Amino acid sequence: MNTPADLSEALAIEGFSVAYRSGAELVPAVREVSFSLRRSERLAIVGESGSGKTTLAMAIAGLLPHDSARIEYSAARIAGRDVDMSATRSIVPVRHEGISMIFQDAMTSLDPVASIAHQFRTVLARTAGMGRRRIRQESSEWLERVGINQPERVLGLHPYELSGGMRQRVMIALALCSSPAVLIADEPTSALDVIVSQRIMNLILSLTAELGTAVVAITHDIELAAKYMDRALVLYAGRVQDICPTDELGSASRSDYTRALMECVPRLEDYDRDYLPTLVPTRRSDLAS
Q1: Under a CB-based contact definition with an 8 Å cutoff, are residues 96 and 61 in contact?
Q2: What is the sign of the dihedral through the CA atoms of 30, 234, 105 and 150?
Q3: 214, 208, 169, 173: which is closest to 189 by C-alpha?
Q4: How many whole angstroms separate alpha carbon 140 and alpha carbon 142?
Q5: CA-CA distance, 75 to 40, in Å (whole number)?
Q6: What's the confidence (pLDDT) of residue 284?
Q7: Phi then psi for 183, rounded to 5 degrees?
């Protein structure tokens, strides 16, 4: 019997694992990850390159095809309802309903040969009862909401005709115009300077707060996670090392790895040090225990 959906729950996964196919072998990338998010909650997923952050995000979003990855889990829910995340439905990946994603590189993630208006139509046409005129109006309104001037002119342009900051704002609008339960942002500020990064993060968080959308931010920037996110999930070698409020990162973390990761964050008081701390390689057998 189906249980009623918990409308306050945005996302929940239990025992979530991903392995990539390499010939006849399966190479584990994410192992037994479990967490849940409420509406409007913000979670940062942090860790070194290769720790499994983006693989986890792509799998949750439904963007890993079954011929390259195998996904296993005990439970998976979006907006309180059970979903199939097994990646076995088709060779072409299909985004899970209720989840949107801001990709790391706005230039390569937007369709280079389609106008901005066409890319909005692709997203908004799925909304029942929305005709072309209403889609155009909605698209223009979303461009205004993300701070783009002359939205009607921009709708007629292609991505290569926009600056990096404008492309990033267009991607934010495309991700949020369908009012998703969960927004996954993969390194949303990686190619931006400090000032623009702060503006983009403030924009994302203000819009998602209006919509009641939960945010999952994939980032190397621990200071960004501490400033903007409610909780942090720390990954190493595909395993969860910590999940805690961001203001407790390092100080109250239960993991030696998390504390070592925090010590590697550059600080102003380190200006006269002869060397900066680095992570000592950790044996994966230690993490598996």
Answers
A1: yes
A2: positive
A3: 169
A4: 5
A5: 21
A6: 47
A7: -110, 125
* Structure tokens belonging to residue 22: 């390499």
Query: Strands, DSSP E only, in 51-204?
Result: 69-72, 75-78, 81-82, 99-102, 182-186
Q: Which residue has the tokens 């983006």?
A: 54
Q: Which of 28-37, 57-66, 175-184, 279-288 has the lowest mean pLDDT?
A: 279-288
Tens-place pLDDT, residues 208-238: 999 999 999 998 888 888 899 999 999 998 9
95 touches 63 (CB < 8 A): yes
Residue 214's beta-bridge partner residues?
182
The H-assigned helical ranges of the chain are 53-61, 106-109, 116-124, 132-145, 151-155, 164-176, 194-211, 222-228, 256-263, 284-288
Residue with tokens 């991903």: 18
Domain 9-246, CATH number (from 3.40.50.300, 3.30.420.340, 3.40.50.720, 3.10.180.10): 3.40.50.300
pLDDT (tens digit, 9 = 90+) per residue, 76-110?
Answer: 999 999 998 885 555 555 678 899 999 887 777 89
